[in-house]
Amino acid sequence: MWPLAHGIGSRSDLPVPLWMAQYGGAAALVISFVVLVALWRLPRFEDPDAGRPLPDPLQRAIDAPLTRALLRLLGLAMGAAIVLVAVLGPPNPGTNPAPTWLYVWFWVGLVPASLLLGPVWRALNPLRTLTMAISRVAGDRDAELARPLPAGLGYWPAVAGLLAFVWLELVYQNAALPVTVAWFLLAYGAVNLFAGALYGPAWHDRGDTFEVYSTLVGHLAPLGRRHDGRLVLRNPLRGLSSIEDAPGLVAFVCALLGSTAFDGLTRTQLWTRLTLTGGPLANALIGTAGLLAMVVLVYSVYVAAVRASGRYLPRAQRQQRDWLEARFVPSLLPIAVGYTIAHYFSLLLFQGQAGYILASDPFAHGWNLFGTADWQIGYTVISTATIALVQVAAIVTGHVLGVVVAHDRAVGTFPEKAKTDAQYPLLVVMVTYTTIGIALLVGA
Amino acid sequence: MPALRRWAAPAVLTIATVLTVAACDGDDSSQATGATTTTATTTTTISGSATSGEPTTTTEPATPAIEVRVAGGKVQGGVRREQVRRGDAVVLRVVADVADEVHLHGYDRSADVGPGKPAQISFTADIPGVFEVELEQRKQKLLELEVR
Question: Do residues B122 and B111 touch, judged by C-beta distance below 8 A?
């Protein structure tokens, strides 16, 4: 991720050892093979209401209005802090913590937080809080006067927001400057508050990129909420069956996967050679083209595979292409999460430290608010061998979970005699994604 | 036969993918060997003759000098990746015909450079990872330093 290297994320991972990559790839293949032919013939993870309920007092504490209000206040404080520091703090990402907070703590940290606890950003999101406040001030407490979201809109605004954000992060050469962070936050906030005022808090379910991201990843959390509101501990794979389908869902997940793959690509020496001679403008164009190409590639390969499987559907169902594409999205999500962990785990671990080191003196006044101002980033808290292991394990685990979910969905979709054949196209796609993922780690 | 059919396709798929993976890996290994290694210790162990009995395992403190030349604002010979070992004392020298600042990221070391004024950064490579060296004003990448 060299664009971010101008200030934050100035270290990238060593190439993963070849033997580790080969073992990882082989394990992924063998497990795929076993899942395909030797496992269950009826869906197991399609019941979103399964799970063990949390004890009553715990549920009451989590759902208490006070808890919710405190979380909303915390979210507002976080939002206010990052905007203030980005706007008023020093102009250099080496001393201003706002870029690290946005790209590392928030964007990367959202994944482990949601993976453990579920849709956390929904509870914290200051933009949702402000939208709710606006509805209330306007005398429309329950947002009954808000317009319904247009049916065709779906997740598309979130896809647009995602592409804008990853372009900023991975292509724009001044990504790490606090002024970039400030403009992005203000623009993102303005668009979402405007849309929130128009459509009510429901906008944030669909159009607010970060909330959509957190909620999607949150479906893989062991902590879930049943339709009756009960909090349960559950097999994370069951949570995937409650993803709300709407137009743009496939594109959103493919944009996530494609952008992470693009980030891996930019760390390879191949990419270094490609962007060596170009000026900033040429490299921005190459970067934009590369990012879009990766997203389109991931998307079209997935859609082609699902369409190929569609041949095995009963004749009456064959026209429902969108339905079929959305049905297998849950199998892509673990793969996307695995990619994300593989690529950003060390960034969170190392550059994440800058978030609290710089927080002690956010306005460059010589403060030492938290006593951390003189700390240095500890680059040896974890060995490079461990990092490589986590990277390969994340990709392989994502792949295995993806294959398991795809199998489960397939046996619930296709007629008995076509159940195995119908899985080949998607399996090929997943093996391809995983091979690319591992190759990018080796070529880093 | 259905049982055979059931297993045949996945088997073919597996073999095909193993071959693909192997092919990809082949590219990478050739790339890795192509990269110049400046660690002073690498040559000594290989050349140990059969008669000497014991292989030379003792390594003197290595001081690889890495030099990058910039002409007309471009890196001569292209941007390469240099590998050093963790703990090595490294001397990085940049000769350039433009005035700028050489910055080694991660280690956060800088030195001014200009026509007739080469930049020299000496440091101990104690942080593992891949780091960029660049001309800070021009945002021109000079070198990738791989510390392992």
Answer: no
Which of B13, B133, B145 to probe by mutation at the A interface, max A CB count within 10 Å?
Answer: B13
Domain ranges of chain A: 2-442
Q: What gap in Å lies between CA A278 and CA A282, rounded to an integer? A: 5
Whether residues A11 and B75 touch (CB distance < 8 A) is answered with: no
Beta bridge partners of B71: B74
DSSP A28-83: HHHHHHHHHHHS-SS-SS--TT-SEEPPHHHHHHHH-HHHHHHHHHHHHHHHHHHH
B9 contacts A11? CB cut-off 8 A = no
Contacts of B24 in chain A (CB under 8 A): 435, 439, 442
Backbone angles phi, psi at B92, to 5 degrees: -110, 120
The CA-based diameter of chain A, rounded to the nearest angstrom, is 72
Q: Is the pLDDT of residue B33 over 70?
A: no
Which region among A185-199, A319-333, B12-26, B107-121 has the lowest average model confidence (pLDDT)?
Answer: B12-26
Nearest to A12 among B13, B21, B129 (CB): B129
Work out the number of other CB atoms within 10 angstroms of the CB of residue B38.
18
Interatomic CA distance for residues A381 and A200, integer angstroms: 45
Whole-number mean pLDDT of chain B? 71
Calpha distance A75→A79 (Å, rounded):
6
CA nearest neighbour of A5 among A165, A174, A167 = A174
Q: How many other CB atoms are found less than 10 A from the CB of residue A113?
A: 20
Mean pLDDT in consecutive groups of 10 residues from the start of chain A, 444 residues: 52 87 87 77 79 93 96 97 96 91 96 96 97 89 81 94 95 91 97 94 95 96 91 90 89 95 87 77 91 95 92 81 88 94 92 92 90 87 91 93 90 85 89 90 85
Chain B residues in contact with A11 (beta carbon < 8 A) = 105-106, 127, 129-131
Residue type, A400: V
Q: Which residue has the tokens 């297998």?
A: A328
The answer to whether B39 and B85 have CB atoms below 8 angstroms apart is yes
Report the distance separating Cα B45 and Cα B59, nearest Å: 9
CA atoms within 13 A on the CB side of A330: 27
B133 beta partners: B104, B143
Locate tokens 């306007």: which residue?
A138
Global pTM value? 0.85
Question: Which of A44, A49, A46 is CA-nearest to residue A230?
Answer: A49
Domains of chain B (ranges; CATH) run: 61-147 (2.60.40.420)
Residues facing residue A224 across a β-bridge: A232
